[in-house]
Design goal:
about 230 residues, 8 strands, binds zinc ion, six-stranded parallel sheet, about 15% strand, alpha/beta
Length: about 230
């Protein structure tokens, strides 16, 4: 092999290396869809998730569960996890102690009575967490899901377009991340097949909150029975 041929071969080998790169490490992630259930939003989302064979977490608002109990039940029956997202979606910081406690307890009771299993996780409206919220939630025998990393799609912001939702949801994703969406976002529904494909390309696997918690903390003893949420 002369120098020229060697150079060509070397460049070829380098470009192969860069083209393929090192395989990305496996990343376990959870998708959460906030603020349902509403039949018109949840039904196409459930259809899409079934087609994609992805289970997620729906964080449901107690009042909306009361309005659409069959939809809450359909989410549960499809194998998704349901988290308690409060009774009325009030800002936790605006509530006095009694009202905060009611927001947590009423949603818990409503979801449990509707789907037949009590949520394990509280997912605070506006992601407002402080010591008072933590202790109120603990007294209701719930845990706040506190992800290792939260990826916010910003699909709640109507000035954020579909391309930006895709970018936000698929950038900087690490093992243990939770990716936040809203059940009602039409842009999210439209982008979801592409988002799932890109996350799969990044070697992501999809888990519920409970599955992700168990995977990240395998030494933690199980808190619930087989079909607890
Ligand atoms: Zn919310």
């Amino acid at each position: 092999m002369n120098v020229r041929m060697f150079t060509i071969a070397l460049l070829g080998a380098l470009s192969m290396t860069f083209a393929h790169g090192a395989p990305e490490a496996a990343k376990r992630v959870a998708l959460v869809f906030d603020d349902g259930p509403r039949p018109a939003d949840a039904e196409p989302l459930l259809t899409l998730l079934a087609r994609e064979k992805v289970t997620v977490t729906f964080s449901l608002v107690g009042l909306r569960v009361a309005e659409s109990p069959a939809t809450a039940k359909a989410i549960f029956v499809a194998g998704h996890e349901i988290a308690n997202h409060s009774q009325t979606h009030a800002h936790p910081r605006d509530l006095d102690d009694q009202a905060l406690q009611s927001e947590v307890a009423n949603a818990q009771q409503k979801i449990a009575a509707t789907v037949g299993a009590a949520p394990k996780w509280y997912w605070p409206p506006f992601l407002e967490v402080d010591a008072r919220v933590r202790s109120t939630v603990a007294r209701a025998s719930l845990k706040i899901y506190e992800p290792k990393l939260l990826i916010v799609s910003k699909d709640y912001d109507l000035s954020v377009n579909a391309d930006a939702i895709f970018r936000n949801a698929t950038t900087g994703v690490q093992d243990g991340a939770v990716i936040l969406f809203h059940e009602w976002s039409k842009e999210t529904l439209a982008q979801l097949p592409a988002i799932l494909a890109e996350l799969r390309r990044q070697n992501c696997t999809f888990h519920t909150f409970s599955e992700l918690d168990a995977a990240l903390h395998p030494q933690t003893p199980s808190l619930g029975e087989s079909r607890s949420m």
